[in-house]
Amino acid sequence: MIERPLWLERVRQAWTQRSVVWLSGVRRVGKTTIARMLPGAVYLNCDLPSSVRAADDPELFLGAQAKDAVLIFDEIHRLEDPSRLLKIAADAYPNLKVLATGSSTLAATRKFSDSLTGRKRSIHLCPVLWEECAEPFGVADLDRRLLHGGLPELLLVARKDPAFLIEWIDSFYARDILELFGIRNRQGFLALFRLLLRQSGGQLDYSRLANLSEMSRVTVKAHIEAMQIAHVVHLLRPFHGGGKREIVSRPKCYAFDTGFVTFEKGWDTIRSDDRGLLWEHLVLDSLRFHYADEDISYWQDKSRREIDFVIRRERDRVDVVECKINPDRLDATAAEAFRALYPAGDNYVVSP
């Protein structure tokens, strides 16, 4: 079992703030592995009927645990009323440390009647970060990380297995989208998902996506919202502070993993022209590990000058992040235009 010290420390830090921690991420991303690395924890796999029966009476189960026990509810959305269990744990048994895992955020899913606002800390487990690849995973080859993606099982195999990705997509629809959101148009939903994989890193055009997927614009927006909640896409909003020539409304859409992007594009090798866009995905994952999603955006003006990522730090201060495979090829024109409008902040070039 490969240790994940970055994420274990993130869980421990979250417990210093709240007794309930929600660890979410797509299936096969490593949630169970991290949960099982916590020493001395009481582990319940909520896929098992025995675990469902044990959690059926929260007061009896929680009250029987040792003081300061660590409890893990893996795939907690399989329970009938998971939010009730976590609410009772947070309110009546604050001495317990609870880690609950699931594929989606708590927001807007049919299984969770209460999002536990103020009672929990949330952690989004993304695919293996680039800074984790060499140590502890022993993968120092950037092209391998870009091609295989960051699901640990795919990253560690010598050859990428298309059957794994096809099975993953089928399971994602059946166990997350259909079960949690009740979306029954499998063909239309997956067609839209594959379109977003192919266009990952580009600006969203809802009308064009509606035409290509043969669904209404309203349905497309609803499906993309479900994908956001299930962590398979992330929408990056444009930064704007009042400049008349800034793009203000069209978000960029990034898929959750480069391995699925390359699979849908039909790439079996990484060419030099491919690396730049895929490297942006890895940098975005790292930024989301360190900063809140609402503080990360991109910038573009109507002359199509663009900044990869803008980090809002404090009032009137924003940092600029440009992603470059080769930092010597940086064109600072966009950054200079941005800094003419927003002079306060630091400028970074991020390369492998």
Describe what is shown at a glance.
This protein has 352 residues and is of the alpha/beta class.
List keywords for this structure.
352 residues; five-stranded parallel sheet; four-stranded mixed sheet; 15 helices; globular
Estimated structural class? alpha/beta
Question: What share of the residues lie within helices?
Answer: 40-55%
Strand composition percent: 15-25%
Order of adjacent strands in the largest pleated sheet: 2-3-4-1-5
End-to-end distance: 26 Å
Spatial shape:
globular
Total E-strand runs:
12
Radius of gyration: 21 Å
Q: What is the ordering of alpha helices and beta strands?
A: HEHEHHEHEEHHHHHEHHEEHHEEEHE
Quick one: biggest sheet? Answer: 5 strands, parallel
- Uncertain runs: none
Number of helices: 15
What integer is the average pLDDT? 94
Tell me the layout of helices and strands.
Elements: H1 5-15, E1 20-24, H2 31-36, E2 42-45, H3 49-54, H4 58-63, E3 70-74, H5 82-92, E4 97-102, E5 120-124, H6 130-133, H7 142-148, H8 152-156, H9 162-181, H10 186-198, E6 202-203, H11 206-213, H12 217-229, E7 233-236, E8 252-255, H13 258-265, H14 272-290, E9 296-300, E10 306-314, E11 317-323, H15 333-341, E12 347-350
Parallel strand pairs: 1-4, 1-5, 2-3, 3-4, 11-12
Antiparallel strand pairs: 6-8, 7-8, 9-10, 10-11
Account of the 3D structure:
With 352 residues, the protein is α/β, with parallel strands linked by helices. Helix content is 41%, strand content 17%. The chain has helices at residues 5-15, 31-36, 49-54, 58-63, 82-92, 130-133, 142-148, 152-156, 162-181, 186-198, 206-213, 217-229, 258-265, 272-290, 333-341; strands spanning 20-24, 42-45, 70-74, 97-102, 120-124, 202-203, 233-236, 252-255, 296-300, 306-314, 317-323, 347-350. The chain has a five-stranded parallel beta sheet with strand order 2-3-4-1-5. A four-stranded mixed beta sheet has the order 9-10-11-12, with helices on both faces. Helix 7 (142-148) packs across helix 13 and helix 11 (206-213) packs across helix 12. The longest helix has 20 residues, at 162-181. It starts with a helix and ends with a strand. The mean pLDDT is 94.
